[in-house]
Amino acid sequence: MARIVFDLDGTLIDSAPDIQFSANFALEVTDAAPLSLSETRSFVGSGVPIFVDRMMRARGLTEGREELIARFLEAYQSAVHQTIVFEGVRDTLADLAAAGHVLGICTNKPIAATRAVLAHLDLAAPFATVFGGDSLPQRKPDPAPLRAVFAQLGAGPCLYVGDSEIDVKTAERAGVPFALYTEGYRSTPLDQLTHVIRFDDWARLPGLIAEDPALLSV
User: Fold this and answer.
1) What does the pLDDT read at residue 214?
2) Rounded Cα distance, 173 and 167, in Å
3) Do 86 and 37 meet the contact criterion of CB atoms below 8 Å apart?
4) What are phi and psi of 160, to 5 degrees?
């Protein structure tokens, strides 16, 4: 059976409202206008420091980066109450585990915030290994975190599942096949993103994997 690793934000969960809350909590110490939900989604994917950099550029802010990061992280540790699990995720994870696949998470979300939201949503149980954006010195799209998760999951074919350009780049650099969830936070057209599987309904993923296991790499 395969090792299947998932991104988190925009892939398994819709966390943009809680990320927006954390960003706007940080911005309260400035005169800048709050972020919209669409802006928030477009900034997600590369970890908190880069999110804050994008937020600062969007608001013309040139000072106070470290304070903004600290305030964002302060709010982010407990910002879980507006986050939801995408429809079909729970059943799909259960089906994949029942089929003998071993599951992990590789996200740029800080590990404390990752564990907090997984616990709040009762979503931690299916995953044998979870790496956050600060679990290693490197973050996606550097392939090191993804390779580390696969290594901890043992041997066997592998697949990375995500929703964004960052996830595509990470899979390419790690040399592993990529499954693209199309309803997440990506901004690039589908035909410009390399993938071996594409799906918009989580219920389809187990069948797509079972239909063509040769898509997975060893």
Assistant:
1) 81
2) 10
3) no
4) -110, 135
- Using DSSP, state whether 172 is helix, strand or coil: helix
Tokens representing residue 54 in the block:
């994008």
Whole-number pLDDT of residue 218: 59
The answer to whether the beta carbons of residues 76 and 120 sit under 8 Å apart is: no
Question: Which tokens in the block code for residue 85?
Answer: 């699990």
177: tokens are 């096949």
Give CA separation, 80 vs 6, 14, 46, 167, in Å. Answer: 19, 10, 19, 23
- Which two tokens mark 75? 């709010």
Is pLDDT at 142 greater than 80 in this prediction? yes
Catalytic residue numbers?
7
Measured in degrees and rounded to the nearest 5, phi and psi for residue 129 equal -145, 135
- Classify burial at 81, counting beta carbons within 10 Å of its beta carbon; exposed 0-12, middle 13-18, buried 19 or more: exposed
Strand order in the sheet with 3-6: 127-131, 102-106, 3-6, 158-162, 178-181, 197-199
Tens of pLDDT, residue by residue over 109-141, are 999 999 999 999 999 999 999 999 999 999 999
In this structure, the chain runs to a length of: 218
